[in-house]
Amino acid sequence: xxxxxxxxxxGRTLSAKEISAEVRVSEKEAYxxxxxxxxxxSKRGYRFVxxxxxxxxxxxxxxxxERLKKPGRCPVCRGEQIEEPLFSIEAGGGKTLSxxx
Length: 101
Hints:
alpha+beta, Arc Repressor Mutant, subunit A, three-stranded antiparallel β-sheet
């Protein structure tokens, strides 16, 4: 399953919802796999890239957030219209990405 997610993220940027649809797992399960991939991928010379969510109402960026899941509410305006975080994997040092996890 994680190999499929890594393959889906190589060269593409996807949300957890898009990942769950592509590899046919629940969104909750996709987040669990993403957490594991985030911890292990850097050991293999790759970079796990997160595009942090933003509030659609006031533009607040959740750049210091460590959890991967989408926040429920904006701490500034209390708005609930939050963009989903996006994920991708970049190869470092000219390596080609091969899912070996």
